[in-house]
Design goal:
Blueprint (H helix, E strand, L loop, with lengths): L15 E4 L2 E6 L2 E6 L2 E4 L5 E3 L4 H10 L11 E3 L5 E3 L13 E9 L7 E11 L6 E3 L2 H18 L2 E2 L2
Parallel strand pairs: 5-11
Antiparallel strand pairs: 1-4, 2-3, 3-9, 4-5, 6-7, 8-9, 9-10
Length: 160
Amino acid sequence: MRINTMRCRECHGEMAPRTLDSMAGEDTGLRMQIDGMPVMACAKNHKRFVAPNFAVKMMQALVEGDPLVPVDGAKQKGLLRKRFVCPGCDTDLDDSAGEHVEVKRTLELEGIEAIGVRVEVPKFRCASCGKECALPASLLGNALMKASSQAFRSAEVSPI
């Protein structure tokens, strides 16, 4: 990954690499925490990604390889009133997921230090057959993108 060494867009100061401690975001019950993310920062603490395509590369590294969530995804049914159903027996699942599946990954991207990512995905248990499942795959990717975007905004990291 090619590091972006441009001057700060806000104050035109010199940018230098810096590592952020921790940031977090949430969407659709999915919580994401990112630890040790590198950014470019100026003396006035304006921050941006180390590379223009950093967010895309980070998400690709997060979901590649083994499945992110070790349990099956629920199915989503309904046009107007969407609901989750068990992938095993098609029974409606309770909307409130009390438990979460926690996944920790260390992402190693070319040219930067390793980044720690912790994702908590809502877990549902079917009252009928007892099968455990998580968010449907169609919602999981979208929730990951929105949660990471919220985390970046919370740390005031600009994409450019």
